[in-house]
Amino acid sequence: MDLAAKVTSKGQITIPKQVREALGIAAGDQIVFRVEQHRAMLAKTPNLLELAGTVEVPAAKRGVAWDDVRRSTRRARAAARR
Q1: pTM of the entire structure?
Q2: Which among 39, 43, 70, 75 is least surrounded, fewest beta carbons within 10 Å?
Q3: pLDDT band per the 50, 70, 90 thresholds, residue 35
């Protein structure tokens, strides 16, 4: 689906109704924009409070800094590709 929206003088856009419906976006929802090269993607962000407790954290990872967890995960994935 390709739809256009006009940018106002304040830099605002209205998300077309078809896009809001497809993504389940309602008033007050948070949206995240990701810019890659010359494109921007948008997505509805989940309510993180609703997700609390839904993912079990292994004992070995509890209390470990998030940057360390990501770094070790990337190393493991890179090693698995070899």
Answers
A1: 0.52
A2: 39
A3: very high
